[in-house]
Amino acid sequence: KYLMKNVQEFSENLSSSEKKITQSASDLNKNGQHSVSKSTQTDPASKQGRKLQSIFDFLDFPSRQSFTNPIYSTPLRDFSRPTRIPAQKSWKNFATPVKDQDKCAACYAFAALSAIEIVTRSASLSAQQIIDCSPLDDGCVGGNPLFSLDYLRRYGAALDESYSFSGSRQTCRSNSVPRTRIAVRYERIRPSVLEILNALQRGPVAVVHVANSRLKAFSGGIYADQNCNGRLNHAATIVGYNLKAPTPFFELKNAWGSSWGEQGYYRMAIGPLTNENPGLCRMLDNPTIVSVTA
């Protein structure tokens, strides 16, 4: 009862954030931001003057992606509410080894793949395939895990061993390597702690949030940065949570190598949450919260 009460309070405190989500998306697309689509996408190597100073500099979720894309017109999923949310849950034991995106801003691809690998118990899948071939994503310049999941559902996924990571965008060669059909379901869920907890009963959740220099310097413990209010610029995969810890947290799998953070993972504090200080590095400000299930 105590846990459910606290989870419900988290959700209620964030109700105003949920109401603002549609307006937030609309505002982002009005403020001179461009959308990436199949007809307008160009090779990042042809963009003159782009200096890749850090992995945070060239991502801008969700302003790089258009919320008018049909993929965003599908209804948000409301999972049936369980009578009891367990105090903790983890999918971490089913994850593949942590990868390293290096200087390539393809966290979106790794976030999508991490979720698929856990659900399907797959060997390590190819991020390079998404970087090279996904028409709605933008290679090493940014993308969206939802678009990556849609691409893999349509065209199948190659293994890392047959389509290895190069760290830059190359010519798509997915037709020349074996690919496996991806039999998973992926659905956007409402941006609230309660809905994420509900979704995690069924599988991992790909999310987008603000990442800054403090997160880059993270070396362990529970990450609780109440001032990360910049632009949404990083994607990762929630693989579990613990509500009975002194500071309740979500655990996320990253793609910055196993020497970063806690062997490549990080725990992000869930609370305290208020309307004025929602925490979670703006994770709940974004409609790209994607549940992946079998």
Task: Explain what the structure shows.
The chain is α+β, with helices and mostly antiparallel strands and 294 residues long. It contains eight helices and eight strands; from the N terminus they run αααβαααβαβαβββββ. Strands 1, 2, 3, 4, 5, 6, 7 and 8 form an eight-stranded mixed sheet that branches. β5 and β6 (249-253) form a beta hairpin. The protein is globular, with a radius of gyration of 18 Å. The two termini are 29 Å apart. Residues 9-67 have low confidence and may be disordered.
Write the layout of secondary structure elements.
Layout: H1 2-13, H2 15-19, H3 21-30, E1 88-90, H4 107-120, H5 127-133, H6 145-155, E2 185-188, H7 193-200, E3 205-209, H8 213-216, E4 222-223, E5 234-242, E6 249-253, E7 265-269, E8 290-293
Parallel strand pairs: 4-7
Antiparallel strand pairs: 1-5, 2-8, 3-5, 3-8, 5-6, 6-7
Low-confidence sequence ranges: 9-67
Class by alpha and beta content: alpha+beta
Radius of gyration: 18 Å
Strand content: 5-15%
Give the total of beta strands. Answer: 8
The first-to-last residue Cα distance is 29 Å
Give the helices and strands as they follow along the chain.
Answer: HHHEHHHEHEHEEEEE
Question: Helix tally?
Answer: 8
Shape type: globular
- Helix percentage range: 10-25%
